[in-house]
Known about the structure:
By secondary structure, this protein is of the alpha+beta class. It contains ten helices and four strands, in the order ααααααααβαββαβ. It has a four-stranded antiparallel β-sheet with strand order 2-3-1-4, covered by helices on one side. The longest helix has 26 residues, at 2-27. It is elongated. Mean pLDDT is 85; it is low at 276-280.
Amino acid sequence: MMGKLLKDLILIITGTLMYALALTFLAIPNNLADGGLPGLSIILHYAFGWSPGIVNFIIASIIILIGYRVLPRRSVLLTVVTTPLISFFIYITEGLGEPLGDTLVSAIFAGFFIGIGAGLIFRTGSSMGGTSVIARMFNHNLGWDLTRTNFVFDAAIVSSGLFIIGPLNTMYTIISLFVGKKATDLIIEGLDTRKAVSIISAYAPEITDEVVQQMKTSATVFEGYGGYMKENADMAYIIISKYQLLKLKRIINSVDEKAFVVIHDVRDVFGGSFSWAKKP
């Protein structure tokens, strides 16, 4: 338990530092904004000259005090650590960054490092105490959709930048947010993404036998019925890593060249053959 807590604290410290430095060295010096509460703090900084670190801490603290009841207890405790750290790192590095001279490059790399920092924070189950908490409050009290509500708040904050940093830099900010979302997904989901493969073939059992033997992974066969051909057609369902995909295609073609194959990404996989290596 203590080991897990220590690991989470290290991830939070690393993530908050990376997030803050991306704002103070890449976003703010190049007149860019961000989504969520840090983005609101930056826009208020541009408009009134207020310290984004202090503003972020004050608003986040108020939101957490009001909405802590709708968050899991562990998430509240981690958020109480995360929010002051982000604000502190922003505060001590304010004014240290210099414009790079290329706003697009700044937006891309700001989004990349912000996304990695946010991903490290989210992996612990923590939050940054901003719009996500407000969205949870509306979801808990009014039944509003969590994802859509959070998106509306973030969109409103980014859109307000039109009147402060102008349309062009607002569009650069949107590019930064897109890159950040992809970077966050990369950290949360990992580099080794999984592929789900559905194989419709009269030889589905034979294909799964070869897969189990040659690839040392599990496979499932379903009994199916072809709606067009009006014939029984078995389907094999297999989860593999992306690096195994080429070998799987070769196995399928060696057994049935006419097999119908559908391949799509899956976000997360646990249990089954993916846990075999963890057993003593």
